[in-house]
Amino acid sequence: MAYHAVRNLARMARTQVKTRWTVLGFGRASAGANQQTPRNLMGFKDGTRNITTDEDRAAHVWAGAETGQSWMNGGTYLVARKIHMLIETWDSDAIGDQQSIFGRTKNEGAPLSGKAEHDVPDFAATGSEGKPAIEADSHIALAAHENNAGTKILRRGYNFTDGLDSVGRLDAGLMFLSFQKDPAQFVALQRKLGSSDRLNEYIRHVGSAVFAVPAGLPAAGHYYGQEFFA
Ligand code: HEM
Predict the structure, then answer these.
(1) Is residue 70 part of a domain?
(2) What pLDDT, in 10s, does the model give residues 44-59?
């Protein structure tokens, strides 16, 4: 259905715009009511702690007057990163190590400081040997808003697979998509993950783009980005 919609949008806009590149992803980007959190290709639930409230969307996703770019009011910025996963290497890693890399359990998706998926991670909790239950260089400890001056982003990634690469490895990973009122939110988190995340041993960022997404149309007769071109 989504593929059909994309084709038709591209067809209708053909005289004005052209498609530069596409990546065919799959899976659900988020969990609706009564749905389980979807898993990424590393087998972990992905999207457990994401933006879900209007309050958070207003504070972190929809651009407002603070950007100094009035034509973007009510719009948002999309960051797209094609991230390869070294799945064969990941699959040979022990589950205990995989869990400490993310800071969550593989089966339930619970933070290593708790029991249930939606337990709030406690980054100060200690494990049996007095070490932090969620290690400081785990993915969630580095990315959580509690450890980033409140910074949040709306993640909407999709899995992708593209057969095998030239040496027979799975050509697969995460088409990471995030929406934020200012791309600086993503940059701050990515800088931190880029320098310390233990997940980096198993992933390679291979493509990156940022898009300005203007607000929806207020009424018939308007077009996208009208305020920008005016
Ligand atoms: C292939 C690359 C990646 C994988 C496999 C991955 C996977 C995950 C998983 C399994 C979680 C825990 C469950 C959840 O709360 O959703 C998570 C959380 C998160 N990730 Fe990633 N992620 C990747 C890349 C990124 C990137 C590039 C960013 C941003 C720069 C990012 C930001 C976050 C944030 C903000 C959280 C929530 C942390 C929290 O508040 O607990 N991730 N990710």
Answers:
(1) yes
(2) 999 999 999 999 999 9
Average pLDDT over residues 73-102: 97
Q: Which domain holds residue 147?
A: 37-94+134-229
Indicate if ligand 1 lies below 6 Å from the C-beta of 102. Answer: yes
Interval between CA 142 and ligand 1 midpoint (Å): 9
Residue 121 Cα, ligand 1 centroid: separation in angstroms? 14
Q: Residue 79 falls within a domain, yes or no?
A: yes
For residues 20 and 28, is the Cβ–Cβ distance under 8 A?
Answer: no
Percent of the chain scoring above 90 in pLDDT: 80
Q: Residue 82: CB within 6 Å of ligand 1? A: no
Q: With helix as H, strand as E and coil as C, how does 175-209 read?
A: EEEEEECCHHHHHHHHHHHHHHCHHHHHEEEEEEE
**C-beta neighbour count of 119 within 10 angstroms:** 14
Mean pLDDT of 142-153: 98
Q: What's the structural domain count of the chain?
A: 1
CB within 8 A of 44, min separation 6: which ones? 98, 102, 104, 106, 109
Q: How far apart are CA 83 and CA 205, in angstroms?
A: 4
Q: Is the beta carbon of 190 within 6 A of some atom in ligand 1?
A: yes
